[in-house]
Each structure stands twice: as C-alpha cells, then as structure tokens.
Design brief:
Layout (H helix, E strand, L loop, with lengths): L1 E6 L14 E2 L7 E3 L4 E6 L5 E4 L12 E5 L16 E2 L2 E5 L3 E7 L4 E5 L6 E6 L4 E6 L4 H12 L12 E3 L7 H13 L6 E4 L19 H10 L3 E7 L2 E2 L5 H8 L14 E3 L2 E4 L6 H9 L2 H4 L5 E5 L7 E2 H16 L13 H9 L5 H4 L3 E4 L2 E4 L7 H16 L6 E4 L2 E2 L7 E3 L8 H15 L5 E2 L1 E2 L8 H11 L5 E3 L16 H27 L5 E2 L1 H4 L4 H5 L4 E3 L3 E3 L9 E6 L3 E6 L5 E6 L2 E6 L5 E6 L3 E4 L15 E4 L4 E5 L14 E5 L3
Parallel strand pairs: 1-2, 7-24, 13-14, 13-28, 14-15, 15-19, 19-23, 23-25, 25-26, 27-28
Antiparallel strand pairs: 1-12, 3-4, 4-11, 5-8, 6-10, 8-9, 9-12, 10-11, 16-18, 17-18, 17-20, 21-22, 29-30, 30-31, 31-36, 32-35, 33-34, 33-36, 37-38, 39-40
Helix pairs in contact: 5-10, 7-8, 12-13
Length: 670
C-alpha cells in the first residue's frame, strides 16, 4: 500500500507518474517536524537494515553513515563522500517494522541513517515543501516493486547497447577511432561501440564537429560497416560565442538560466564561458532536445550526457571574490596560517578549491517554472534529469518507433524513464570493483536498470589484472564500457600481453547476452529488478542478508566476482545448492554442483564465474564479435537437467515489447 503526504507547497518533479491523492494525519512510522525546515525521525531496532539511495558510497545496507542528496561532480569516490552525481531519495527500512519512504524533494536532502545516533534515522531538508510517499508491503522486495510501479517503466535501450564499448578522453581524430576499431577487430575482441568524448567537437561546442570530422556521415557509415557505432558526448553548458547558432538562439529566446537581474548567468566549463539551458522550462527543453537531430541526421544512434549536475569550474562572481581575497592575502604581512588579522594560507587555499561547484554559484541563477522564477539551488537535483528528459522526449519526435542509447552522469528519480546512468569518474582502484557491485542493486531499486561503471577505472593507472577482474564484473552489468581519462595509462584491451584473455572474457558477455538481455527486458517490462541483494531472494537466511559482495542477477543466477589484487579465487556463500559455472579460456564451460554453505572457489584471471540456482537453467550462445552476429536461434542450455527457461527476445531496435512472439520456452535436455 502507498500513502502520500504533502507538506507545504512542493514543486512538481515528475518523479512519480501515478496519481496518488494526498492524505492528512500522522504517519504510521516515525515522526515529522516542520519547524525550521522538515525532518522525519524514526528509531530503528538493532537488526534493522536500510536499503536504497541509488548511487551512493559504502554498502548495500546504508545503515551507519550520513548521505546527502546533492548532485555533485566529485571524481574522488572515497568512503567519506556523502554526495555523488545522483539524488535518489528512496529508502526501505527492514526490521521489526518494514516500510519504504520516497522523499520527492528536488534540493539538498540529508539521510542520517544511524550516524549521529546508531539507532536513529533522520531525514531532513531546509524547506518543508515536499511530497512523502510511505509504502508498506510483505517484504522489502515487494515494497521496491510497488515503488517502481508508481515511478514508471525504466528506460529500454537498443540491443546493441548491451555490447561492449571502448572509450577514452583524448580520442581526437578519425584516425584515433580507426586505430581503436582496428585494435579490436584485428585481435577479434568483441566490440559494438566507440565513445566520443569532448574532443570531437569544435571548441567544445555542443552539436558541432571539429574540422577533423569533415564528411562525418560517411565516417559514421564506415564504422557501422564494421558493426561499430559511435556514441558522442553532449555537455550541459553552451559556449558563449557570437556566431554560434545555439548560443544566439538561446539568448534570443531566453532559453538560458538567468541571474536575478534577468541577465544570462555565465559559468566557466570546458568551452570557457558558458550559459546553462533552462531544462526545467518545457520550451527550452524542446529547443535543446531537437538539437540532437544534428547528429541523428548523420547516423548517430546513441549519446551520453555529461557535466549536468551542472558542473561549474568557476563563475565570474566567484573568481572576482577569489581575486579580492588573493590581493588581501598578498598584502598580509604577518604570515599567520590561520589568517588572524589578515587572510591565512588555509583560507586562500579553501577559496581556490571551492571555486568549482560552489554552493554560492548555485544560488546565483534561476529557472522559469510555470511562469515563476525559482532559484537553482531549490531545484538543483532536477537539472541532469531534465537534460536527459530533453533528449528522450526529442528522440520520440525524431524517430518515435526507434530506441536510442542514452545515459547520463547526473540524475534524479524520474530520469530512469529516459535513460541510464554511468557511475561517473571512478578510479583504477580495487575497492571500486566492489563499489560498482554494491551500487547496482541500489540503482535498480530507484528505477535505473541500464547502469555500469568505467571498467578498469577512469582516473589513475589501471593494471592488466585489475582490468580483467573489472571486466569479469562488467560482463554482467547492462552498460559494459572501458573508459579512461586523458593522461592515464592506455587501457584498451589490446594494449596488454596475452590478448586472448581479454578476447575470452569479453566474449563471455556475448555468449551470455541472450540471457542478460532477456532478464533486463523482463525486469523493465515488469517493474522488477535486474540485480537484487541476496536478502531479496533469501529473506529468512541471516547469512544471506549480510552478504554484500555477491548479487542475484535475474531469476536464475548469482554472481560473485573477484575484487582483490593477486586473488586466485574467493570465498562464496551459497544460500542453497547451486551449480558453480566457469567459462574457461578454451571456450568450454565447467559445471560443478556445490551444496548450501561457505565454499572457497578457484577463479583464474581468465575465467568468468557464475552460479545457477537450484532447478534453473540459462541459455548460452556461441561467441560473436558484435551483437548483430549473435545466433539466438541455436542456443545451448546450461544448469539443471530438465529445467526450463522463458527467453525474451526481440529485434532490439523497435518498441514492440508486448508482442507474445517475443517469448519462447526453452528446456535443458542433456
């Protein structure tokens, strides 16, 4: 059951698609206070578990820390970080009382989950203007499915988007892309996409191409002839430049966010001075969305939206303040570090560090919402959502019957209907394999099914071992992309010795793709989860509830990747008897029956493991070098003899999701 409580005058976010009438009166759980803002407080029992919050640091169980929904461009995803790129305000409390809470509030929101007091959950924000949804059900899993139903169907990408993609910030020319394509094709490593980061543009201007990409439609066709799609990036900021049509149209039609005095707000991002489109204005959203046609008309079928928190390097106002402080610092004579009597070195350093993504800057500009001027910080978490919504709505105008690939860095619940997410600028750290794993079910709970991390790590230098272990997890994430930052070690899979290991591991993705795609589609079409914590399947098993380095995928398998340097295997907990399956480098598949309990399993660097649940089976294809070449008509079944599997498959291009012909039942008959 879902109850809605409205406090103050909330702004409509469009996160929820179902019409649910608001109720009055006290909540069944916890206490609400609307004095000096809003707070919800609940006393948790000692064994209560808290799920949710989508993209956040730390564990699947969020209890024990403080998290802040405040979309933030922060490339250092360490345990102390309270905010990342997304704002996903849904949690489930599972204890003596079990309930879900969705706080539909578009500004900064704090979740103190046993941080200040270990037994106390406090959710608070500065203004008591929000909708609170309280969801009750038979289990956390049931509550999540009810929530998913009221927020609308999750985004469904084209099938090619389940292939492997290669990306790097620094590919600048056609020859750079051809080199990557050759590196994969000549070494027979499967590949479906190469991503275009900001260097393909003319001076980092959205919806432009640098002169090095003259004849772009022919280049797109050249790549497609090799079964490779180019996926360009689009940034949120529009360069301030006379003669640039998008800038001039935006200024003329007042489509950009404005200062309080009505002038267009200016911030520095990649192109230098930029304006931010007002994506919360439907007219501006339509205008910007239609600009994607510049690239779709040239054959492009997918995009990734970036810098849409929005990221700000600095504003003119912020820079002027820093300059004034620097002059004061330079004129100081006492040299005091603490600034007593003048400006100290720490104060100066803090000011310079805080120029980027400054809360002060987010208070300097405004949106037009239903004819009313609303300061950005009041709706900050909706910006990335509505940029991606602009694209999604435009795709329905550009080619209504076709699916386009779209994923974003920043997000709010509701954006899951228009695109997926990648988890931003992670690092080449072993801990980030585990963080990737833990984020996936939480993102699924909030509707984001098409999700993945930068495999191998975006920042810092990867290693061959780290990349292979990262890829072995990436085999199972819907978005499977290797992406790295400029200045880091080159980490395309053909850059390392024994390339056959990379060919094999990525090849396993393509062998499993009919199953993974089928489970993704079933999850999307039924408001279900693709990834689940073990506790959602085995709620009575106390050990399963505590496991955070294994996940259930779909309805048939469990995954348990290796995430430690020099690891030759790992301990794994089986809540029931399962078949331990390994895809071996010679192309064979080993199957071993393991009983309920704790086992140590050997997993070599060039092996991909999974576990098939008792009484289940899954389909496996032969290897292919691109999605289009996967033979889905001749699949072999692995798992338990006599088990059946219902496979969902379609053309992967159009939206004929309800067609009964998309389903067929397969039996494992050895």
């Amino acid at each position: 059951m879902i109850r809605k409580y409205t406090y103050g005058a909330p702004l409509r976010t469009d996160a929820v698609t179902s019409e649910i009438p608001a109720e009055s009166g006290a909540l069944s759980y916890g206490a609400v206070c609307t004095k000096d803002g809003f707070s919800f407080t609940y006393t948790m029992d000692s064994d209560a578990v808290v799920y949710g919050l989508g993209e956040a640091t730390r564990g699947i169980n969020k209890r024990g820390y403080c998290y802040i929904s405040d979309c933030t461009d922060d490339p250092n995803h360490t345990e102390d970080k309270r905010s990342l790129y997304g704002a996903h305000n849904f949690i489930v409390v599972w204890g003596k009382e079990t309930f879900g809470l969705f706080f539909d509030y578009p500004s900064r929101l704090t979740f103190d989950i046993g941080y200040t007091r270990m037994d106390t959950l406090t959710v608070s924000c500065g203004n008591a203007d929000l909708d609170l949804y309280v969801i009750t059900g038979s289990s956390p899993y049931d509550i999540v499915k009810q929530f998913r139903h009221i927020i609308g169907r999750s985004y469904i990408p084209p099938k090619f988007a389940f292939g492997f993609g290669q990306s790097r910030w620094g590919y600048r020319t056609k020859e750079d892309f051809r080199k990557v394509a050759r590196g994969y094709r000549e070494n027979h490593i499967p590949l479906d996409m190469i991503y275009m980061d900001i260097d393909y543009m003319d001076s980092y201007k959205d919806f432009t191409l640098g002169e090095q990409f003259a004849g772009f439609p022919e280049f797109v066709r050249e790549m497609k002839d090799s079964h490779i799609r180019l996926i360009p990036i689009i940034d949120a900021g529009v360069k301030v430049e006379d003669g640039y049509d998008i800038y001039e149209e935006g200024v003329q039609n007042r489509y950009f966010c404005q200062r309080e005095d009505g002038s267009d707000f200016v911030a520095a991002v990649w192109p230098g001075d930029t304006h931010f489109p007002d994506f919360l204005d439907p007219d501006a959203r339509k205008w910007f969305g239609d600009k994607y046609r510049f690239l779709t008309d040239q054959g492009i079928e997918g995009f990734w939206n970036d810098m849409n928190e929005p990221a700000i390097f600095y504003s003119r106002e912020g820079l002027d303040e820093a300059k004034a402080l620097a002059r004061k610092f330079a004129d100081g004579e006492d040299g005091r570090w603490d600034g007593a009597g003048s400006v100290g070195v720490w104060q100066m350093g803090d000011k310079l560090q805080s120029l980027a993504n400054s809360p002060e800057d987010y208070r300097r500009f405004y949106h037009k919402i239903n004819g009313t001027k609303v300061r950005h910080d009041k709706v900050h978490n909706l910006y990335g959502f509505n940029m991606t919504r602009a694209a999604g709505e435009a795709f329905d105008r550009i080619d209504p019957g076709r699916r386009f690939l779209m994923f974003s860095r920043s997000s709010y619940i509701g954006m899951h209907r228009y695109g997926g997410v990648w988890t931003g600028d992670n690092k080449s750290w072993w801990s980030h394999i585990l963080l990737n794993l833990k984020m996936m079910p939480s993102l699924n709970m909030c509707g984001f099914l098409y999700a993945g991390a930068d495999l191998g790590g975006f920042g810092a230098d990867t290693t061959r071992e780290l990349l292979l272990r990262f890829l072995a997890l990436g085999v199972f994430t819907p978005l499977m992309r290797n992406h790295a930052a400029m200045g880091t070690r080159e980490q395309e899979c053909y850059q390392f010795e024994n390339i056959e290991d990379f060919r094999h591991v990525i090849g396993v993705r393509y062998r499993l793709l009919p199953y993974l795609y089928s489970e993704y589609m079933k999850a999307a079409l039924n408001d279900d989860l693709y990834f689940k914590p073990l506790a959602f399947v085995y709620p009575e098993d106390k050990m399963a509830v505590r496991i955070e380095d294994q996940l259930m995928l779909g309805n048939e398998i469990m995954i348990a990747p290796v995430y430690e340097q020099n690891g030759k295997g790992r301990y794994v907990y089986l809540p029931e008897e399962m078949k331990f399956v390994k895809f071996l480098p010679d192309g064979s598949i080993s199957e071993e029956l393991l009983g309920q309990g704790i086992h140590y399993v050997d997993i070599a660097l060039n092996e991909v493991p999974l576990f098939i649940r008792k009484g289940k089976c899954i389909p496996v294809a032969e290897t292919a070098e691109c999605v289009e070449e996967i033979d889905t008509e001749h699949l072999r079944m692995i798992g338990y003899d006599g088990a059946e599997y219902v496979l969902y498959d379609d053309d992967g291009v159009h939206k004929d999701y309800e067609n009964e012909k998309n389903y067929r039942t397969m039996k494992n008959q050895h």
